Amino acid sequence: MQTNEIKVALVTGANTGVGFQIAKALAENGYHVFVGSRDLEKGKDAANQIEGEAHAIQLDITDNNSIRNAVSKIENEFGYLTLLVNNAAISNAGIPGRTMWEILSAQKASVTSIAEMRQVWETNVFGTLAITQALLPFLRNAKQSRIVTVSSSLGSLTLNADPDNSFRSGFDAVYGASKTALNGVFLSLANELENTNVKVHLVSPGFTATALNNFEGTDTVEEGSLEPIRVALAEDIPNGSFTGPATYRTEQGDQVPW
Questions:
Q1: Exposed/middle/buried for residue 111 (C-beta within 10 Å: 0-12, 13-18, 19+)
Q2: Is the CB of residue 45 less than 8 Å from the CB of residue 21?
Q3: Within its chain, how far is the Cα of 170 from the centroid?
Q4: Residues 94, 106: contact at Cβ < 8 Å?
Q5: d(CA 190, CA 202)
């Protein structure tokens, strides 16, 4: 186990959007950041825009060989990981060029393509858990470490069961439900790791304008990155948290309801 360690982070899907903003903030705060990107050249372009120790790493979380190569790089360079930020996600796998609401309409449970549903869940749920499992031994090797998974309040069953929630019409069987499943998987992991050196957090950026929603969100990427950055940098948040922007919180505080 490392005792006097450099803080080392891997951010998946970090070449653009919220992931890029998180990677940038971590580097500015003294982390050595691996900028994960399916396209290595895009990752290099992103890393070159970040001041500090930011280095591109090719990573497709749905590709076992890509995961193994990324893990080997971290093992050879450091042998431990302080922070894993699971940001990589997709919202659909259908016809390009559609509006957000056209995508949501096509992803209703009664009509959605099962093949598309499988493809989205392969990234958002199974791929996210695969990279987490692969890196968990290195997270255990750090003195204290954290897993921060970018989820969505769109995956909250409590919020989407509330008739007064104006966003509940966007809870679809493909993307929205994949975030529900993601929440369940990582709550399970938080419970499993609660007496270890690894803490687990989930965080919602809110309705942020990114490629996930065809840039039709109401918040800028800078606004939507505020809470994920806060959680990524904080080291004193209790294990098993699920937080989001103030507008998504309840009377219980900053926790987003499951």
A1: exposed
A2: no
A3: 19
A4: yes
A5: 10
Alpha-carbon distance of 107 to 248, in angstroms, equals 23
Question: Could you tell me the pTM of the whole model?
Answer: 0.92
pLDDT at 183: 98
- For 169, phi then psi, to 5°, come to -65, -15
DSSP SS3 for 141: coil
Phi, psi values for residue 95, rounded to 5° = -65, 125
Convert the pLDDT of each residue in 70-102 to its tens digit: 999 999 999 999 999 999 999 888 777 788 888
DSSP H or E segment with residue 144: none
CB 168 within 8 A of CB 213: no
Considering the chain, what is the average pLDDT of its residues? 90
Confidence of residue 3 (pLDDT cuts 50, 70, 90): very low
Sequence-ordered strand ranges (E) for the chain: 8-11, 32-37, 54-58, 83-86, 145-150, 198-203, 241-243
Instruction: Report the SS3 class of residue 210.
Output: coil
Nearest 10 degrees: Cα torsion 57, 59, 64, 67 = 40
Residues 18-74: tens digit of each pLDDT: 999 999 999 999 999 999 999 999 999 999 999 999 999 999 999 999 999 999 999
23 and 10 Cβ atoms separated by less than 8 Å: no
